[in-house]
Please model this.
Amino acid sequence: MNYFTVLWNLLLPMLLLFTLVAKRRLAFLNKEGYDRFGRNKLFAPLLKWEIIKDKAMAIRNNVEPYENAYNEIQETVQRQDDLRQVLTALPGAAKIQVDKEKERLIEARRIAISEKGPYVKVRFSSENE
Model:
């Protein structure tokens, strides 16, 4: 079998297809209302509203995970910025809080010791009687 014959048999369907497309395009050449590819310049596809709505819903459903991921990333960045602001303000506030707590504990200890004195005296006096 000849190689040129095999090659011709493979290329012939493609050549026929190209000639058909070329003939169609030439038929519309310089015709009013058509572009050079044979498409109507005023062409609007006649799709029913439900089909367009279904396509829009499919696109929305496909895009929704990406939108949620983007929103989560934005929220994370915002939370990190808020956390940085809190952490910069935290050392001063934490020192004040620790100092106040220390003062409160010292005062509570002083009060407990001062109240313990009369209780111990009353207990010793009641045990001695």
The two ends are 134 Å apart (CA to CA). The chain has two domains: 1-44, 48-129. DSSP finds two helices and no strands in the chain.
